[in-house]
Design a protein that fits this description.
about 15% strand; 7-stranded parallel sheet; globular
Length: about 260
């Protein structure tokens, strides 16, 4: 399905990451993958995972650094012959203390940090990917969002505001980049046990409520999200863009 495709994966932290589940789907379909990592703490884990799929590039990236973004996409261009077909954006961050108390008490600097890392990074990396995808004749971008950007979810707080910004950015990027045959979509996943999820206060309560109220009455896992993202990245979804694709056992459809 992805034979000959070149992909850049942003946001793998460990083997439980949603980004890694997506990467495995792409690799199994024949794609060649490049990876970025954030910080020395996870570098070893990301390099080991990347090696397991024969990645030609593993590079550090702080998405708040525009020069760093330029460098990474220059490296990607070099290893992939000036072309890029697929971009997976699975990057988000908010300070742990802002996922515990009241949203009202979020300080200005940490508010903008969450929006910058979790939402603006999609804009910045999509812009950097644009010429490489145009050279490839088009491309597909997928990012990870959550229902907390549409509705208030206790303790999700500033991350919900960041996801709302991300959701709007998906639509505007889809419009801008569509003329170059570049599609931009989001996957909205239910609770998945990842490194990021563990920082949300009351996550286990969220999981139990989810199972009780979702129409299918079951949890989802990272591989479910990987399958959905792989579809959106594939040519089978060639006419899908600007869309939020829910993988949450139907939870988003419920009123209570």
């Amino acid at each position: 399905m992805f034979q000959g495709k070149k992909a850049l994966i942003l946001g793998v932290a460990n083997k439980r990451s949603i980004a890694w589940a997506i990467a495995q789907r792409l690799a199994a379909g024949g794609a060649e993958l490049a990876f970025s990592f954030q910080g020395e703490r996870i570098e070893k884990s990301v390099r080991e995972l990347a090696d397991s799929v024969g990645s030609p590039l593993v590079t550090e990236l702080d998405v708040r650094d525009d020069a760093g973004i330029d460098r990474v996409f220059s490296e990607v261009s070099e290893v992939f012959g000036g072309k890029l077909d697929l971009l997976v954006h699975s990057v988000a961050f908010a300070a742990a203390e802002d996922l515990e108390g009241r949203f009202t008490d979020t300080p200005r600097d940490r508010f903008w940090m969450a929006v910058d890392i979790s939402a603006y990074s999609l804009v910045a990396t999509a812009r950097a990917a644009e010429p490489l995808m145009e050279a490839a004749g088009g491309g597909s971008v997928v990012t990870m969002t959550y229902l907390g950007g549409e509705r208030a979810v206790p303790h999700y707080n500033v991350m919900g505001v960041a996801k709302a910004t991300l959701d709007a950015s998906v639509k505007y990027l889809a419009w801008d980049l569509g003329q170059k045959n570049i599609r931009v979509n989001a996957v909205s996943a239910g609770p998945v046990r990842t490194l990021a999820a563990r920082s949300i206060a009351g996550f286990t309560t969220m999981e139990s409520m989810f199972e009780e109220r979702a129409p299918l009455h079951r949890h989802i896992d990272a591989d479910d999200v990987g399958a959905a993202a792989a579809y959106l990245l594939s040519d089978d979804a060639k006419n899908i863009t600007g869309t939020t694709f829910y993988v949450d056992a139907g939870y988003h459809a419920m009123g209570m």
